[in-house]
Specification:
- This protein is mostly helical.
- The protein has a single domain, classed as Orthogonal Bundle (Transferase(Phosphotransferase), domain 1), CATH 1.10.510.
- The chain is about 30% helix and about 5% strand.
- The strands form two sheets. Strands 1-4 form a two-stranded antiparallel sheet. Strands 2-3 form a two-stranded antiparallel ribbon.
- The protein is globular, with a radius of gyration of 15 Å.
- The relative contact order is 0.16.
Length: about 140
């Protein structure tokens, strides 16, 4: 997995987004860039900074200051959002989705895990690819909310 090296060393990237994922030459090697917000997680502590690209940030990063605690699992959520973008061409969460019929802000969409697989963008995506993407952003399995 893209973040396994960092996570094995208790490092949380905290700002994974498509623009900082690089393919190396013609090989299947993928590298992650922009470690400006990356941090080492001490074995007994959690992170509490509000940071990361708004559309890719995990729900627990958006908690109120006094409740905000997270670890490197936030990177798994972000990778799920990136995979979603790769499969259909747009992010699952966006302030542009706000309408009278869908009255949720970007933050509310993320914190509630509210997203879908709209047609026609997801029509050509295989069921196995959709399932694989859903594992990354499985709201209940990854997050304790």
């Amino acid at each position: 997995m893209l973040t396994a090296f960092e996570h094995d060393r208790n490092i949380a990237h905290r700002d994974i987004r498509p623009e900082i994922i690089f393919l190396v030459d013609d090989s299947p090697t993928v590298k992650l860039g922009d470690f400006l917000l990356a941090t080492h997680i001490q074995t007994v502590s959690k992170l509490s900074d509000l940071c990361g690209a708004p559309s890719y940030v995990a729900p627990e990063v958006l908690d109120e200051d006094r409740f905000r605690q997270y670890d490197q699992k936030v990177d798994v959520w972000s990778l799920g959002v990136v995979l979603y973008v790769c499969l259909c061409g747009f992010p699952p969460f966006s302030h542009e989705l706000y309408t009278p019929e869908f009255p949720y802000t970007l933050s509310q969409q993320i914190r509630r895990g509210q997203f879908g697989y709209p047609s026609p963008a997801w029509d050509p995506v295989s069921d196995s690819a959709s399932t694989y993407q859903a594992v990354f952003t499985d709201f209940g399995a990854i997050h304790s909310h």
